[in-house]
Specification:
CATH topology: Metallo-beta-lactamase, Chain A
CATH superfamily: Ribonuclease Z/Hydroxyacylglutathione hydrolase-like
Number of strands: 13
Distance between the termini: 22 Å
Number of domains: 1
CATH class: Alpha Beta
CATH architecture: 4-Layer Sandwich
Largest sheet: 6 strands, mixed
Strand content: 25-35%
Structural class: alpha/beta
């Protein structure tokens, strides 16, 4: 499914974002870099982003972080503006509903981990249960596009021409982010 799993490390600690497949590879990387996995965080509840939660928790003792509205088993409930400590850094939580009600992005300095909210030159579907074009409109135009152009976008899947981009590049090339009114965006998202 071309999923990305990300490792954020600092001061000997690691946070795993969206553990799914290839956990041995993830744990090999953390071990090679002298990192202890202390937490995992899910961008949303879909199985392809959470499949590895239980196994990773069992193998490492890491706590599971997910948005408060998520039905996922979790140790720590996240809210918009909250933070996840990893070593000396803080991972900021941005609640970004639209693809799902529990969708979040994680901002680490100038790096944004978007899950299925925003892909390179595309966005997550809104036609699945809980999806909302109106919520996604507010996520894009009231939250993500207010970030600096140099913020690097790391999506949840490798669906684009390249594996990552920036907010500035996406502002120019991503047709889903073209300036539209809320009503125009909702109509656009309903098109086949």
């Amino acid at each position: 499914m071309d999923n990305f799993t990300y490792v954020i490390g600092d001061s000997g600690e690691a946070l795993i974002i969206d553990p799914s497949w290839d956990l041995d590879k993830v744990l090999d990387e953390t071990s090679k870099n002298g990192l202890k996995v202390v937490a995992m965080a899910n961008t949303h509840h879909h199985f392809d982003h959470t499949k590895g939660n239980k196994e990773l928790a069992d193998r490492t003792g890491a706590k599971i972080y997910a948005h408060r509205s998520s039905a996922l088993p979790k140790d720590v409930a996240l809210d918009d503006g909250g933070e996840i400590p990893v070593g000396k850094i803080k991972v900021k939580v941005l609640h970004t509903p639209g693809h799902t009600p529990d969708s979040v992005c994680f901002l680490v300095q100038k790096n944004l981990f978007t899950g299925d909210t925003l892909f390179v030159d595309e966005c997550g579907r809104v036609d699945l249960p809980g999806g909302s074009s109106e919520d996604l409109y507010h996520t894009f135009f009231d939250k993500l596009l207010k970030l600096d152009d140099n913020v690097v976008v790391y999506p949840g899947h490798d669906y684009g021409e390249k594996p990552y981009s920036t907010i500035g590049e996406q502002r120019k090339s991503n047709y889903t982010l073209k300036p539209r009114s809320r009503e125009e965006f909702i109509r656009f998202m309903a098109e086949p």
